[in-house]
Design goal:
The structure holds two protein chains of two kinds. By secondary structure, chain A is mostly helical. Chain A has four helices and one strand. Chain A has helices at residues 38-47, 65-77, 88-94, 112-115; one strand at 2-3. Chain A starts with a strand and ends in a 13-residue tail after the last helix. By secondary structure, chain B is an alpha/beta fold. A five-stranded mixed sheet of chain B has the order 2-1-3-5-4, covered by helices on one side. A two-stranded parallel ribbon of chain B has the order 6-7. In chain B, helix 1 (29-43) packs across helix 2. Classes of the chains: A mainly alpha, B alpha/beta. Chains A and B meet through strand 1 of A and strand 4, strand 6 and helix 2 of B.
Chain lengths: 128, 196
């Protein structure tokens, strides 16, 4: 669908919104809950690398540690409050259209989450 | 900025890369010119030029519009959602989601508020070319390589973060003086997009 300018988009196509608009219903969900459709959210995080392949792809609707960890990493990467909760800024950000490439490839990322913690061998020094 | 694991890049000494469009898409010259502009934004800062070729099979970079499952294991999801994806060097594959409402002129001033599905094609093209060259996603919101793009939003000018990242891989274009030029059709970044 190519349009020379925005005014040439037919009204019939306007207002489709985000393919991830359904995520709105998860606003306020938190660890320990079980909510219908939460597995779809896990699929989203799996697709973009926030849940590793080792976790399989048959996700449950449980708001478990796996999901909380994925949310925290996502929030870190996108400079959101790292609460691990599905707050409004996080949900709204997840619904934005985006590049299909994963943020985390094979478990590694040099986005903010990959730079947050120093490697274990780092020795903290103080200038003297 | 970030790189793909292993920091893949086009081979050292590469000074020119060719690109071609999937013949089956039958893209117009106007659509192709959007990509030409997007390539120019990167060639301005690194010592690599991009040349269009009609020979799709032998082109270094292959650009195509696809819908749904198109055989690479990364199915598109219809309007909005994922907009495009591209593979790390030296794969050269850039896939755009054919279900999006792609806007060519990059002008979203006075856009009707009801148009939630409009996507600026050049903004996405510049981002995906970054992947083709070896850049991963960035957490810097102003950067081209930030993963999300609001609808009816234009972001086409490389940020310092993008320039630093790509120059780690390829060095600087000797002609680059530290600032990028504004390319026609003229509008720079418009991240205040009404719907972003």
């Amino acid at each position: 669908h190519f349009f020379p300018n925005i005014t040439s988009i037919p009204r019939s196509l306007a207002g489709n919104g985000s393919a991830w608009g359904v995520f709105n219903k998860f606003l306020g969900c938190h660890a320990g809950q079980k909510v219908d459709g939460l597995a779809r959210l896990k699929n989203y995080f799996h697709y973009f690398g926030y849940i590793g392949n080792h976790s399989g792809s048959n996700f449950t609707d449980d708001f478990d540690d796996l999901l909380e960890s994925a949310i925290k990493t996502y929030q870190l990467n996108f400079n959101l409050n790292t609460s691990g909760e599905l707050d409004a800024p996080t949900i709204q950000h997840m619904m934005r259209p985006r590049c299909g490439n994963a943020d985390i490839v094979n478990g590694s990322s040099t986005m903010a989450s990959g730079k947050a913690a120093p490697p274990p061998t780092t020795v903290h020094t103080v200038a003297h | 900025y970030s790189f793909f694991p292993g920091q893949p890049r086009w081979p050292a000494g590469t000074s020119e890369l060719t690109y071609a469009f999937l013949p089956g898409n039958q893209l117009t010259a106007t659509v192709k010119s959007v990509f030409t502009r997007a390539f120019e934004r990167w060639s301005e800062v690194i010592p690599i030029t991009f040349t269009q070729t009609e020979v799709y099979r032998s082109a270094d970079i292959k650009i195509g519009f696809y819908t749904g499952d198109h055989g690479d294991g990364e199915a598109f999801d219809g309007s909005m959602g994922t907009l495009a994806h591209a593979f790390s060097p030296p794969s050269g594959h850039l896939h755009m989601d054919g279900d999006e409402d792609w806007v060519l002129d990059g002008n979203f001033l006075n856009a009707p508020a009801s148009i939630l599905s409009a996507v600026d094609m050049e903004s996405v093209a510049v981002h995906e070319i970054g992947h083709l060259l070896g850049l991963g996603h960035s957490s810097v919101e102003d950067s081209i390589m930030y993963p999300t793009l609001g609808s009816a939003t234009r972001k086409v000018e490389l940020a310092q973060d993008d320039i630093q990242g790509i120059q780690v891989l390829y060095g600087s274009n000797p002609s680059f003086n530290g600032t990028t030029s504004v390319l026609t059709p003229g509008q720079g970044n418009d991240t205040s997009g009404a719907y972003s």
